Amino acid sequence: MGDSAVLYQGSCHCGAVQFEVEADADIEVEDCNCSICSKSGYLHLIVPLRKFNLLAGEEQLQTYTFNSGVAKHRFCGICGIKPFYIPRSNPDGVDVNVNCLDTRPASMTVVKFDGQNWEQNAHTLAHKSQE
């Protein structure tokens, strides 16, 4: 971890799915207006796969796909919460729901992302899984 890196713990609502993610103390997250993110209230923290570790609950995870089928929306089969998923914009990374972290980052900048026009905007996220 770097000097400003923090190892955050997170989980679904019932606690069956538990994970940890390495990210900066001061993070930038996306608030997407696409159909699934709007309905679920998801706040996106996209990280390289190597910065994410599933600690428990693989057997409880279900996968939902739609449209292109590239994004793998993973959710707990017990409580239904989606704590992380493999995003279409960054299939080589992980997108963690900041709302599922046990402790909120000390500083967080929320950036609006126009997911309703995903094709025109997805390129702005590609770098997030490459850090």
Structure description:
Strands 6-7-8-9-4-3-10 form a seven-stranded mixed sheet, with no helix packed on it. It has a three-stranded antiparallel sheet with strand order 1-2-5, with no helix packed on it. 8% of the residues lie in helices and 43% in strands. It is mainly beta. The protein contains two helices and ten strands, in the order E-E-E-H-E-E-E-E-E-E-E-H. The protein has a single domain (5-122), classed as Metal Binding Protein, Guanine Nucleotide Exchange Factor, Chain A (Beta Complex). A hairpin with a 6-residue loop joins strand 1 and strand 2. The chain has helices at 35-40, 118-121; strands at 5-11, 18-24, 26-32, 43-48, 52-56, 61-64, 72-76, 84-86, 93-97, 107-113.
Mean pLDDT: 90
Number of domains: 1
Q: In the CATH scheme, what's the topology name?
A: Metal Binding Protein, Guanine Nucleotide Exchange Factor, Chain A
Separation of termini?
A: 12 Å
- Global Rg: 14 Å
What order do the strands of the largest sheet run in, or round the barrel if closed? 6-7-8-9-4-3-10
Relative helix content = under 10%
What percent strand?
Answer: 35-45%
Total DSSP helices: 2
* Helix/sheet category: mainly beta
Largest sheet: 7 strands, mixed
Low-confidence runs: none
Keywords:
single chain, 131 residues, mainly beta, Metal Binding Protein, Guanine Nucleotide Exchange Factor, Chain A, seven-stranded mixed sheet, three-stranded antiparallel sheet, 10 strands
